[in-house]
Every structure is written in structure tokens, then in C-alpha cells.
Amino acid sequence: MLGVHDSLLPEYRGFSPLNWAIINGETHTGVTIHHISEVFDEGNVILQKKVKICNNDHIMDVYWRTTQAACEMLHSFFDRAKNGSLKGFRQNPKRATYFPPRTPKDGKINWSESAQKIYNLIRALTHPYPGAYFYYQRKKLLVEVAKPVQQGPSGAKIGVPVFYKGSCFVKSGSGFLKIIKLRNISLSEIEN
User: Fold this and answer.
1) What span, in angstroms and rounded, lies between the C-alpha atoms of 182 and 187?
2) C-alpha span between 135 and 158 (Å, rounded)
3) pLDDT tens digit string along 70-97?
4) What values do phi and psi take at 151, rounded to 5?
5) Which tens digit of pLDDT belongs to each residue from 164-184?
6) What confidence score (pLDDT) does residue 81 get?
7) Please, are residues 171 and 152 in contact by the beta-carbon 8 Å criterion?
8) How far apart are CA 190 and CA 124, in angstroms?
């Protein structure tokens, strides 16, 4: 039995590896074709391909890039299967990292973190995933698109949206997040 995993095993074993890679600010991920073993994601590696993650990529950008890489790898895999070279190599357990499944509540934004870290969470959980969110005036606001910036309105409080020069900014623990699009409400609805 064989499996295809969206990481360079043994890194990012477990669930939601693409989401976690973006959340953790990785600059690359990959795809691994591996043997299925009794222990989850620990089988011998047959083929791997590195995939770049750009700072402005959202989850679906990375998803489609890894899907394309997997399709290309499957062609190579079938060539190797004809030659009988499917044994692969053992994973290095010292390099192994494990990640748990994500739940919608894991998308709650902690505004005391840096703007870059919050931005990574947003781009990892944007559509079609449940989204990164925060509460403001008793409304749950799902952030679809945002951008970290160093400067913002003076006097802003951490976690409170401020409209400044026609844009919505939220101060974080380090820097500001410029909110460009919300999923469930227009920015103008929270401006007042």
C-alpha cells in the first residue's frame, strides 16, 4: 500500500500539513509518496518533491502547487514501478515533526502575536477552510485577506479595528494588520 502526503516526510507528519506549514511561516513544503506502515506517516519514502511557499501565497495557492507536483511525481512513480525500484528509504526519526488535526476554534486570532504570525494564520485558513476570526462588537469577523504592515494609526489599541486613510487597521503585538476583506461582512459595516 502506498500513500501521498503533502509534506517532506518525516517533517509535518499528521494532519493538515499544508495549513501548518503556512501557519509556521515555512518557505517550502513538499509532497511525499511513501509506503503505508503500521505507524501513521512513518513508511519508507519512495519519492519526494519540494514545493515553494511564497509570502503572499494563500492555502489554495500551495494546495494547487502540491497537487501539480504530486501528479508529476505519479508519472515518475509508475516508471519506477515498472523497473521494480519501489523499496524507498527509511525516514530519519530525528527529523520527525507531528501536527494534530485543526478545528475551527484554532482559527481564533490572538492579537498579542506579531502581525506576520497573524497574517500566516489568515492565509492558511482562508476559503475554503473555516477561516481566521476575531470578535468585534459581538460579531464574529472572519478575515479573508489581510496584509502585515509596520506603521498604522497612532493611539490604536491591540485587537481593535481602526479606520485610517480609507483602510481598516488592527494593531497587533508587533506591527499592524491591514484588513482588506472579511468573509461574512463588508468592512463598511464595522466602520460605524
Assistant:
1) 7
2) 13
3) 999 998 888 777 777 677 899 999 999 9
4) -110, 145
5) 888 999 999 999 999 999 997
6) 78
7) yes
8) 24
Closest by alpha carbon to 29, among 20, 37, 42, 38? 20
Helix or strand or coil: residue 43?
coil
Task: Locate 186 and state its grid cell.
Answer: 463588508
Contact 159, 171 (CB under 8 A): yes
What is the greatest pairwise CA distance in the chain?
A: 67
The answer to whether the CB of 66 falls within 8 A of the CB of 39 is no
* pLDDT one-digit tens code per residue, 96-147: 999 999 888 899 999 999 999 999 999 999 999 999 999 999 999 999 999 9
Q: Give the pLDDT score at 82.
A: 77
115-125 and 59-83 are packed helices; what angle lies between their axes, rounded to 10 degrees? 60
Give the single-character DSSP code of 105. Answer: G
* Model confidence at 161: pLDDT above 70: yes
Residue type, 171: K
> 161 vs 114, 169, 176, CA distance in Å?
16, 6, 10
Query: What global pTM score does this model have?
Result: 0.92
For residues 113 and 28, give the distance between their C-alpha atoms in angstroms, rounded to a whole number. Answer: 22
Q: Which residue has the cell 479595528?
A: 161
Give 139's strand partners: 136
20 closest CA partner among 127, 113, 128, 107: 107
Q: Edge-to-edge strand order for the sheet containing 161-164?
A: 132-136, 139-149, 176-182, 167-171, 161-164
